[in-house]
Amino acid sequence: MMSSSAFWRTVISGFIATFVMAMISFFQGGLGLPVVDVGHIMKEGFNQVHVNDPYTIMWGNVAYFIVGIMLALIWVTIFMERVPGKWWLQGIIYGVAISFIAGLIVAPLAALAAGDSVGIFYFDTWFMRELIIAGLTMHLGYGLVLSFCLKTAGVKGLKTTEEIARTS
Fold first, then answer.
1. How many domains does the chain have?
2. Which of 65, 97, 71, 87 is nearest to 161 (CA)?
3. In this structure, is the dihedral angle defined by the CA atoms of residues 124, 128, 131 and 132, taken in order, positive or negative?
4. Residue 153, domain extent
5. What is the pTM of this model?
6. How far apart are CA 51 and CA 19, in angstroms?
7. What share of the chain is helix, strand, coil (3-state, %, to 5)?
8. Burial profile 140-167: b = 16 or more Cβ within 10 angstroms, e = fewer
9. Is 75 helix (H, G, I), strand (E, B) or coil?
10. How far apart (Å, rounded) are the C-alpha atoms in residues 94 and 88?
């Protein structure tokens, strides 16, 4: 069971990591990579279902941050204690895993929901390689920042550093 302290530390860490991932996405445009505005993509998916476009970019970004926080909670509750290595290696592993799943499943489904098609690993686009690099860069940033924040916050799987010290 996750303590409330570990829960909130994980939520805050997930929020920070998602923010950094969004900033990495925007800065990639300066490097010649595509800017992957996930909040906008989610807003377009929501509005594809509703004819009068009731959703603004705010709702797309709220959904984006909720997903980022959920990924942090999934990491802490399921994978953190099972993936070996120091925090930076765990961050790289989680970032690569998220990027793989995003290219294989999430991006194709999100694009279809928004009325477009990018294909598996962006195969239906004319800039597949750039999108793979952009996605991998964003998710590596997310994984590394999340792992660093969790380490700094003292979250060790389902327990904080203080809870582990008390039980030892």
1. 1
2. 87
3. positive
4. 4-167
5. 0.88
6. 30
7. 75, 0, 25
8. bbbbbbbbbbbbebbbbbbbbeebeeee
9. helix
10. 10
**Where do we find the tokens 């802490």?**
76
Closest CA to 20 of 146, 136, 130, 135: 146
> Tokens 């709220």 appear where?
62
- pLDDT tens, position by position, for the chain (168 residues)? 788 899 999 999 999 999 999 999 999 989 889 888 889 888 888 888 777 878 888 999 999 999 999 999 999 999 999 999 999 999 999 999 999 999 999 988 888 877 778 888 888 888 889 999 999 999 999 999 999 999 999 998 875 556 666 766
Token look-up 């303590």 returns 3
Token reading at 31 = 């490097």
CB 57 within 8 A of CB 39: yes
State the Rg of the chain over Cα: 17
The residue with tokens 């294989």 is: 104
Q: Cα–Cα distance between 62 and 64 in angstroms, integer?
A: 5
Strand, coil or helix: what is 35?
Answer: coil
Q: Which residues contact 83 (CB under 8 A, 6 or more apart)?
A: 90, 93, 94
